[in-house]
Amino acid sequence: MYEINPYQKASLSLINMSNNLNYIETANDTLAPNRSNLNQDNFSIGGELQREWTDDFSSQLSFYYTQYDLDALSISNNESQQLKQNNLVKESNIKLTTYYKLGKHLNWMNGYEFTETGIENTTNVNQPPFASNIKGVIRKHGLFSEIGYNSEDEKLTGFIGGRLNYIENLDTFKEYIFEPRINISYELLPNFKTEILGEYKSQVTNQIIELEQNFLGIEKRRWILSDGDALPITKSKQGSIGFNYDTNKLYVGIDAFYKEVNGINVYTQGFQNQNQFDGEIGSYAVKGAEFLINTKNNDYSAWLSYTYNKNDYTFDVLVPTTFPNNLDVRHAITLAGNYTVGDLKLGIGLNYKTGKPFTQPNDNAPINEAVFPTEINYEEPNSSRLPEYFRADASANYTLYMGDKMNAIFGISVLNFTNRENTLNTYYRLQDDNTIETIERLSLGITPNASFRIQF
């Protein structure tokens, strides 16, 4: 960050990350081991220029470029079969935002944003021979405007605005999408407010979730672009109403919300049952409520939160048409706090969640031999639940001051210090002898971490 002059500031950020995974699996009845490599690289750079032109008018110009590259190689069947996969994502963005004070209580924000996203997916198999190379580019132009208001007594604040998007896939479609949004807050009583929020959103990129049994025994996701047909633009609308009481020492809030998302494909949802290969288009709707209480002073802060969700899919061509979402966690509770003693900060947190849904094979007829190849005969989608989830964490940070402008922070933490074994996922696969194998994905046990940071 650099202050060019009292009216102009500039900033620049950059990050580069690389993750490389090598995996060797040896079976007793094979001559050569199965070998797999999964490499992921991320590079991002961005900048921002802020300028105050007058007392009433200012602007902000920003840009970023990001690139994500996934390379996967799997060698199996005594090295006779090789599978190569690549997923390359490049995105560039530039945005100009202006702020103008219309009066003492009114502010007007306007802007333009351009985003270009290019994604390439490559797959090569040597046996049986198969090659695929799918490329796509989507350009998104966005004009947005927003009016903000703040009353004289500051009891009523809020904004109303909208965004007009022009989206073009250079190969398949062009579409205009209008996205309104509103945020209103009103102080009913001293320190007691109510808030109403609502907005529409859209998304042109999604992730295909590769089945866990297909690569390394772990989940692998590949980015893809909307094509307007098999994967339309994902559109959502959401709204909430809440009440909160806020003082210097106590915050209590409760919110009720509803969200609906249309244009999802089963390939992007991670199904591992009878619907995982259908490629159908559907939607999901989630409704619920959140409660949060936080008490604090100069030495400590403690909070308790509870969330209730009911999250359901709707796919018109599936049976049944409505069933629980893969991420339908009905109840979640968090109890946490931290305490500061001089330069030492201690923290502890407890997390509890009811289990996610999953689909079990039918007890009476678990295998369907009437089709070829033979398939698992499942119960209704997501009709069973995983066991409840519980995790307890603790941390400590110590700050060492090294002059007026520099300090160092030493940190340690222990995740899941009770060493509880949580089941994160359960799915099934059919073996060559027509028996069903149960696969369980379990959480990590006690996991220590250490960190060191310098700030200047």
CATH superfamily: TonB-dependent receptor, beta-barrel domain
CATH architecture descriptor text: Beta Barrel
Q: Which secondary-structure class do the elements indicate?
A: mainly beta
**Whole-number mean pLDDT:** 91
Low-confidence stretches: none
CATH class annotation: Mainly Beta
Order of secondary-structure elements: EEEEEEEEEEEEEEEEEEEEEEEEEEEE
Count of discrete alpha- or pi-helical segments spanning 4 or more residues: 0
* Secondary structure: number of strands: 28
Domain tally: 1
Shape: globular
Cα-atom radius of gyration: 26 Å
Strand content: over 45%
Cα distance, first to last residue?
12 Å
CATH topology: Maltoporin, Chain A
Helical percent range?
under 10%
Give the biggest sheet.
20 strands, antiparallel
Folded structure, characterized:
It is a single chain. It is built from no helices and 28 strands. It is mainly β. It has one domain (2-455): TonB-dependent receptor, beta-barrel domain (Maltoporin, Chain A, Beta Barrel). It is globular. The model has no long low-confidence stretch (mean pLDDT 91).
